[in-house]
Amino acid sequence: MAKVYGHWITVNYRESFGLYAVSGILFQSRVGATRPRVRHAQVTDGAARIKLGQTRELRLGTLDARRDWGFAGDYVAAMWQMLQQPTPEDYVVGTGQTWSVQQLCERAFACVDLDYRDYVVQDQRYMRPAEVDLLVADASKAQARLGWTPSVSFPPAHRADGGGRSRAAPGTLLERWWRDASARHRVPVGLSANG
What we know:
Distance between the termini: 46 Å
CATH topology: UDP-galactose 4-epimerase, domain 1
Largest sheet: 3 strands, mixed
Strand order of the largest sheet: 7-4-9
Radius of gyration: 19 Å
CATH architecture: Alpha-Beta Complex
CATH class: Alpha Beta
Structural class: alpha/beta
Strand content: 5-15%
Number of helices: 6
Number of strands: 11
Helix content: 25-40%
């Protein structure tokens, strides 16, 4: 409710008082020290803890929900570009691509050479009764008018290093999330099954 109110009060003040006010509708932006209660951080944090033997499973709700995950740094660039325009307008910011929670699990666990199916448990307690199955941005206006495009993507797949170990591809959201989880648990990004 607060986000919707924030958007409409911005529109109201812009139209009523002629203020230079811009509203950005940002989809699932994440970076840095994200709390583990956020879905992607739960997954990378859980995989790290399982790899270290600190826990045996990761309990999640639905794995089918699809999200448009983007990098907060890209979104800050879009916000700055919005504020540089001669006329204030509202923009939607996101990648326009979706990935399921299951795909996130597959890739995050593969980065530590584990199969998510052996550790992830769907728990009824975490199923949302009004789960939105698909959240995807249409950032075409931001792309057309601002020339904005995201520079960091969610990885289509992990990659293997020369030693056959899985790693998060550099410059991807997963690699950034892994750096955060690795710092919390002192697990090298791309830790192999052999250590």
